[in-house]
């Protein structure tokens, strides 16, 4: 029996065709690849259609979320997610531009990385700073999770009771605190097969 299994939460997004296919096919294929990282059967969200962020940044996204259990370190999980993005020919030329595949490590257990002070700095960046600044280290939980309906709505399919270790609110509470108009933009497409 595996010891020290930890829950990891991953967000999926695509708004450009990839070598895996269209946006929907890209998310579904990447979900299969990420599922292989789980030591137990993973939980997968439905697929959702969401507008690009910021508005006008490209075509609509297909988004999803997954909950896996793993004994891998956060950095190792992130490295594997980046490898899957590379398989899908993800480029990072334009911040918040169209993406063949975007895999975000949202949380690993109750880890706060690298520490609470650094997490707070990144969590409180202005929108202008978010568009230009990129961390040079892994920040967990993802510093924008509480602001993004396109992450929280799918996340609530797989881990509604996950408690943000800094904000001390569940995923469902964070989702419900968002403006209703932003949540209305997150439209279910289907349940993955």
From TrEMBL:
Keywords of this entry: ATP-binding, Folate biosynthesis, Kinase, Nucleotide-binding, Transferase
InterPro entries assigned to the protein according to its UniProt record, in alphabetical order: Hppk, Hppk_sf
Q: Which family does it belong to?
A: Belongs to the HPPK family.
Q: Which organism is it from?
A: Yoonia tamlensis
What exactly does this protein do? Catalyzes the transfer of pyrophosphate from adenosine triphosphate (ATP) to 6-hydroxymethyl-7,8-dihydropterin, an enzymatic step in folate biosynthesis pathway.
Q: Which Pfam families match?
A: HPPK
Top EC class for this record = transferase
Which GO biological process categories is it annotated with?
A: folic acid biosynthetic process; tetrahydrofolate biosynthetic process
EC code(s) of this entry:
2.7.6.3
Q: Which residues form the 7,8-dihydro-6-hydroxymethylpterin-pyrophosphokinase domain?
A: 95-106
Q: In which pathway does it act?
A: Cofactor biosynthesis; tetrahydrofolate biosynthesis; 2-amino-4-hydroxy-6-hydroxymethyl-7,8-dihydropteridine diphosphate from 7,8-dihydroneopterin triphosphate: step 4/4
Q: Which GO terms describe its molecular function?
A: 2-amino-4-hydroxy-6-hydroxymethyldihydropteridine diphosphokinase activity; ATP binding; kinase activity
Name of the protein in its database record: 2-amino-4-hydroxy-6-hydroxymethyldihydropteridine pyrophosphokinase
Domain of life, per lineage: Bacteria
């Amino acid at each position: 029996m595996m010891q020290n299994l930890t829950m990891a939460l991953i967000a999926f997004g695509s708004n450009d065709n990839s070598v895996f296919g269209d946006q929907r096919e890209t998310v579904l294929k990447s979900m299969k690849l990420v599922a292989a990282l789980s030591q137990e059967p993973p939980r997968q969200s439905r697929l959702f259609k969401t507008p690009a962020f910021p508005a006008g940044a490209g075509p609509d996204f297909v988004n999803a979320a997954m909950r896996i259990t793993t004994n891998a370190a956060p950095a190792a999980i992130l490295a594997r997610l980046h490898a899957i993005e590379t398989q899908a020919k993800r480029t990072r030329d334009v911040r918040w531009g169209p993406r063949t595949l975007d895999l975000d490590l949202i949380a690993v257990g109750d880890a706060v990385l690298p520490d609470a002070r650094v997490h707070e700095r990144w969590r409180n960046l202005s929108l202008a700073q978010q568009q230009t600044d990129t961390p040079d280290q892994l920040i967990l939980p993802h510093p924008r999770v509480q602001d993004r309906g396109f992450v929280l709505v799918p996340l609530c399919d797989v881990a509604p009771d996950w408690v943000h270790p800094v904000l001390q609110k569940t995923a469902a509470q964070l989702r419900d605190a968002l403006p209703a108009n932003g949540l209305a933009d997150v439209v279910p497409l289907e349940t993955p097969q």
